[in-house]
Here is the input.
Amino acid sequence: MTGGLMVPLSGQSQSAGQDQFQLINGNTVDLSEIINLFDFEKMAEGKMPKMAFEYVASGAADEFTVRWNRQALDAIKLNPNVLNDVSKLDTSVTLFGHKLPYPILVAPTAFHKIMHPEGELATARGASKAEAIYVVSSFTTTPLEEIKKVATEPFWFQLYVRDDKEFTKNLVQKAEELGCRALCITVDTPVGGARDRQARVNFKLPDGINAPYRIGESLSITWKEMEWLISFAKVPVLLKGILHPDDADKAIEIGASGIIVSNHSGRNLDTVPATIEVLPRIVERVNKRIPILMDGGIRRGTDVLKAIALGANAVLVGKPICFGLASGGAEGVTKTLEILRAEFEMAMALTGRATIASIDQSLIWK
Ligand SMILES: Cc1cc2nc3c(=O)[nH]c(=O)nc-3n(C[C@H](O)[C@H](O)[C@H](O)COP(=O)(O)O)c2cc1C
Here is the structure.
């Protein structure tokens, strides 16, 4: 199998200590015990302050949607073919003219400095090392100029529209000037969700950590503001948080270049369905007019395969990146992506699919 960085399936093929990394504060971090993405969550829980862990790990209200995201992926069975030539895999996809070596991006997540002292700089370094696009959150705790300096792979920018429209426009233009290749405008957060677990730990940013673009109040945007944003954006605009096929249609009508099927990892409106359940409806309605990305509960290479089989062009991962970051800074982020990439390659080979184009609905057991 070629085409990607392989991560050993178990620790035994690695020499002891190979996975030990030096952090800038002099502490070493040992990631050799980490075999899969769930391991990172356990490690992160032991390392993060409770408030930060609760911020990352929690969903809205009773967390039905958080669980459904995973349960729905787990419930899908695969229908493999054998004896296809899988000696050489091509996992690359092209999005908006840019070739990605594999179809996994880093989802925008806020406040990385509460997860690791190096914050978004570690995320950018880690994602770049794994050759992945990092979608930087509007609620980054590190200015974009600094992220740009350390990122060696392209980055995208996620926008929460603020009530000061001039500020919002300037922020988009700043991101574009700094080389951001696409804009993901989050449309599923006119208000925050019922974040019970965050309320219980009285979540707030610790002193000394601030989010420079979280200025004023968020604007409860409508299709009108979205048209305004698309009218001046110079890079492709994706609408993040689409769950209804009618909204996918409208997004295309107003000129969106892509959509992200997302339920915000179950953090906003509890009891909406799992994104993997929603995906086929959106795929049917969009009918290949624009690329569709998906996120929510992706933890295994087989999850990536299932999303692509059901029509996604690529997926994003949120929480696992936060846990990788909290566990091991940049190296944790890289390892998170490498594990997922390696598992995805295994899943392709084991289902007899050598290219992304050959991953289709017939892979899903009916
Ligand atoms: C800690 C955390 C912070 C997040 N912050 C943002 C954000 O600032 N902007 C945004 O559009 N989505 C945000 N999201 C949602 C993610 O972009 C993404 O939709 C989701 O995490 C994907 O699901 P997963 O975490 O199960 O992989 C956040 C998610 C988490 C877990």
Notes: The chain has one domain: 39-363. The longest strand covers residues 237-242. Confidence is low (pLDDT under 50) at residues 1-26.
